[in-house]
Design brief:
six-stranded parallel beta sheet, alpha/beta, Rossmann fold, nine-stranded mixed beta sheet, 19 helices, globular
Length: 482
């Protein structure tokens, strides 16, 4: 049996800010459907974790962790949820704060976390064969696993969920934060800074990212965020494995967030829409298709394209609803847009999981014109809720949404290639044309209804990766013994 330890900074159902948490919440369960695998997860113990979970945690041990001149105590807790064992590393100084990111000392906080993970390994009754770290916050655990070797033959996998966030720190904190020889700085330094993500790319045995297209894109300067050189150097060890979603959690037939559950019935989507619009004060026009965005209001999500063309598209008989928070430029724009078109636009500058689910269940189209998108979760949820995605062909959006083809009747959405506002406008107008063509719309919805976006195939690929890594260790040991 291969034993895998996931290390990450967030995970559903305990704490979530984005798609990383959904992966950590559902991939271990998918992997453990294989009898040959045992997967456990290690997370920070934030104050943000709900009391209902904290009350279920069992104390395991406490131990000292050295971060430069600071000796900090780590306390390890555990609980079992849905047949998966979770460990939580507590420290009041680093993790007893409101929110989980955005502090001036985030680098130091996750240096501590990585040291604490490695120091915990010899104390567990679980000896992992593979340490699988996720994103920059856990990236230094990969470095430390290689340098400190807390367990014999421990292999490492590092998954890039978003290359844009790299965990940068000035190099003059090296002696202060790390208790390792200065010769190892070269494996961490990039462009004059300590780069946590680069450290993981340099030291990991295998590297994955969250879609095959993104794995190819990040080898190029446009998408590589300054790290494309090292990614090309490691390309033989890089694999893109497409994320899935938890289809038990995201299921319109059983979703407790919805007032009216359904499987595929369009009439029940309309009923959900009418209820939602009444509650949020949005005018109800059943003849108009509803286009929605559920997103962070940041440049990555293609909002500059939306700014360029949305007023022109709003001349059509449509409605547009956006849910999210983010940069002031975009919050101000969508507030302005609602003010100009109150009958056609609703802007909700907030985020609520219940509200998001109800929007997916009410919409005809989900708009995701992203500048880049490593995998994307919203388009997969939309498809589950029988909402048609409109995407730019990048990253996981390209891998999951196939443009509708009138001639063949194939395709589960609409897409455009270049990061260009007029291409977006063209595909929006085309989607509206198909919506009003009853036969073509019926075929498109039939395609959407047939889709399956589970973790099954992804888990199979990760299983194969782990088995190859462990087999390579065993082969090396056997050859070494001859």
């Amino acid at each position: 049996m291969e034993r895998i330890l996931f290390v990450a900074s967030e995970g559903v159902p305990f704490v979530k800010t984005g798609g990383l948490a959904d992966v950590i919440g559902s991939l271990p369960q998918a992997l453990q459907t294989y009898e040959e695998l045992e997967v456990r997860v290690m997370l920070p113990f934030y104050d943000e974790i709900g009391e209902e979970w904290q009350e279920k945690m069992e104390y395991l041990t406490s131990y000292d962790v050295q971060v430069g001149w600071r000796k900090q105590q780590a306390t390890l807790y555990t609980l079992t949820h849905e047949n998966c064992v979770y460990y939580f590393i507590a420290n009041d100084y680093y993790f007893s704060r409101k929110g989980i990111y955005g502090y001036y000392d985030d680098g130091e906080r996750f240096v501590f976390f990585s040291h604490a993970v490695l120091a915990a390994l010899p104390q567990l009754d679980f000896k992992p064969d593979v340490l699988h770290a996720h994103d920059w916050q856990a990236g230094l655990a990969v470095l430390l696993a290689k340098v400190m070797q807390p367990l014999p033959d421990l292999k490492t996998v590092f998954t890039i969920h978003n290359l844009k966030y790299q965990g940068l720190m000035p190099t003059d904190v090296y002696e202060d934060f790390f208790q390792i020889d200065r010769e190892h700085l070269a494996g961490m330094e990039w462009d004059g800074m300590i780069n946590s993500l680069k450290a993981a790319l340099f030291h990991a045995d295998k590297i994955t990212t969250v879609s095959p297209t993104y794995a190819e894109e990040i080898k190029q300067p446009y998408y590589g965020d300054g790290l494309d050189t090292i990614i090309r150097e490691r390309k033989a060890d890089l694999q893109g494995i497409l994320n899935g979603i938890d289809t038990k959690e995201y299921n319109p037939l059983t979703d407790l967030h919805l007032p009216i559950n359904y499987r595929t019935a369009r009439s029940k989507k309309f009923e959900n829409r009418e209820l939602l619009q009444g509650e949020i004060g949005f005018s109800h026009h059943p003849e108009r298709p509803l286009y929605v965005m559920v997103t962070r209001l940041v440049e990555q999500k293609g909002l500059h394209l939306v700014q360029r063309i949305m007023e022109e598209f709003l001349q059509e008989e449509i409605q547009f609803l956006i849910l999210g928070t983010g940069e002031a430029e975009f919050e101000d724009y969508f507030t302005y847009l609602e003010g100009m078109y109150p009958d056609k636009v609703k802007t909700l500058l907030t985020f609520s999981e219940q509200l998001a689910r109800r929007i997916y269940a009410s919409a005809d189209f989900l708009l995701m014109p992203s500048k880049f998108e490593p995998c994307g979760l919203s388009q997969l949820i939309a498809l589950q809720y029988r909402t048609v995605p409109i995407v730019r062909e990048t990253g996981g959006l390209k891998d999951t949404v196939t443009a509708f083809n009138e001639e063949t009747g194939e395709g589960n959405g609409f897409s455009f290639t270049n990061y260009n506002a007029h291409e977006l406008l063209h595909v929006l107008n085309y989607s509206l044309e198909i919506y009003h063509d009853a036969e073509k719309w019926k075929q498109l919805i039939k395609n959407v209804n047939k889709g399956a976006y589970t973790w099954k195939e992804s888990a199979k690929q990760y299983k194969r990766l782990y088995e190859e890594l462990v087999a390579s260790t065993n082969e090396y040991d056997e050859q070494g013994a001859i």
